[in-house]
Design brief:
Length: 50
């Protein structure tokens, strides 16, 4: 083998995977908070309109 092909090391893959998982968890938590707040506001509006 004359040339070494450029590739990701295991450490680089683990770092990329961990960053992706952190961003995913932050987005899921933000989405759940948004849905909870939206449901609460919708319930309050429904009670006020009744």
């Amino acid at each position: 083998m004359l040339f070494k092909k450029p590739a990701f090391t295991l450490l680089e893959c683990l770092i990329a995977l961990s960053l992706t998982m952190i961003l995913f968890m932050i987005s899921v938590m933000g989405y759940r908070h948004f849905i909870t707040e939206n449901t609460l506001i919708a319930n309050v509006n429904q009670m006020v309109e009744a």
